[in-house]
């Protein structure tokens, strides 16, 4: 891998789509080898094949355009009167959302960087010396590159619509930019993935490489999305929904869901004084994960010396910041010694909107407990703690509860159920769902305190360290069930599992248990009521039911904006759940596409059209 990095640094690949002259890599002599000579060897080509995977790390962590500004996450607390964490350019779809914002630029640049790496591998495959049986391996590596290229094209075409579509290696300067119609991009993606499916193996000894199942899963997503035929521009037909269900069935047959949802994510105890797990303590190679971006110590992405993520070196010891960016921190709660690894540092880049907690049954759905910290514990003794002015001090012991976020269906309604900070009887603060972000400041918590969304939290990582070891799942077979359900709702025939309700309930039942109730709030956005309804399908399945279930199942996994875009529900649901969007009412139909980055337009030698509305 070190040799590969030096060779990559020696390549003067000038890519107008996604980089400018300031981004050219500095040439470094590697024993006087040229890239052409090195990549024509089997060892060099193998190293080149590894280069198409590391950039998935920063791409996966570009969450602002996939999470915030939706019906699930906000960059600021829902009712935060200060709003100092609010990314107005994305959060509100207001005037600040322009072609010059960095989030748009970064998503464009890094995906086109990865496309060019894939194109380099595909273009150079024919020149590789093929001693022995390596010819068959070349075909597999080309198929991997087509999968990676398709994944990046799919991200881009969903976000930007008509986009440039380079299919060969860029090895000279070219400033002409041609936007290809979205229908052609989808056709190319399907061609690439179909060829990749035929050539890729069912499994691979190098965990992290693309497999046949990964190509099939992405095909299911692509067909489902094309079937919705956004703006009648994707070339979609009703037959696409049938193809989506068929490919989803292939994935379901090969990748059985694990029995316990919690086994998919880092393991931890809610009480940090009784923590028995450590960083990366999760089963990344379970049967359900079809494709994951690696952050653990694996051969494909280990020791990447290119500073591709905020200037930080990426290596097998870290890289995933998922554990530190969701929700509020409790490193200043009573009984906390401050900046320690007990709760790590939570930056609050993505705060879960209150209505989303009300999509779960807190009593039966294992995903609720995994997603949210319901109780905060003291880490050390805190004798003589004063809950509020005029209240007698209390002695807090390590392991005592200091803050409780009450379940939406069981709010505290009397002083006997409230903390001494508000005149109640309990030695800890109690916060109801409708009070989060607006409750008066207490000695137990800040005014704008929100609970951690700790699905990805890894215990034992030093405070301030943003680089966890959790391998982020890009594709899980539980999604294939919901893809099939959605495809059947849109007209596909029943599949191997049965009806849309059968596919849908398979995911619900794994989380809740087939014999338990599964009750969500009847109106998730009316925080004042505990009225409920079942979210298990008893007959008809609707798109909103599927979107609710996808919210519960894939919270924070980077799919949400694409789900709302595909189904045409972005404006409706974002206004309903996200008070920043509903209150300011900036969002319009043209926000279903992002603006083409200003740098791309400025650097092009020809006139490049901008998306309408920007």
List keywords for this structure.
13 strands, three-stranded mixed sheet, Serine Threonine Protein Phosphatase 5, Tetratricopeptide repeat, 614 residues, mainly alpha, disordered N terminus
Task: Describe the protein.
With 614 residues, this protein is mainly alpha-helical. The chain has a domain at 2-257 and 596-603: Alpha Horseshoe (Serine Threonine Protein Phosphatase 5, Tetratricopeptide repeat). It is built from 19 helices and 13 strands. The strands form 6 sheets. The protein has a 3-stranded mixed β-sheet, with no helix packed on it. Strands 1-5 form a two-stranded antiparallel ribbon.
User: What fold name stands as the CATH topology of the domain at 2-257 and 596-603?
Assistant: Serine Threonine Protein Phosphatase 5, Tetratricopeptide repeat
Number of strands: 13
Which word captures the global form? globular
Structural class: mainly alpha
* Approximate helicity band: 25-40%
Strand order of the largest sheet: 6-9-10
Stretches where pLDDT is under 50 for at least 5 consecutive residues are 1-30, 78-85, 302-318
What is the secondary structure topology, with strand pairs?
Layout (H helix, E strand, L loop, with lengths): L1 H9 L24 H5 L2 H9 L5 H5 L12 E2 L13 H4 L10 H23 L9 H27 L21 H18 L12 H17 L10 H16 L34 E5 L10 E6 L2 E3 L36 E2 L1 H4 L8 H6 L3 E3 L4 E4 L8 E3 L4 E5 L23 E3 L40 E5 H13 L10 H13 L6 E3 L10 E3 L8 H11 L6 H8 L2 H8 L1 H6 L13 H6 L11
Parallel strand pairs: 9-10
Antiparallel strand pairs: 1-5, 2-11, 3-4, 6-9, 7-8, 12-13
Helix pairs in contact: 3-7, 6-7, 7-8, 8-9, 9-10, 9-13, 10-13, 13-14, 13-15, 15-16
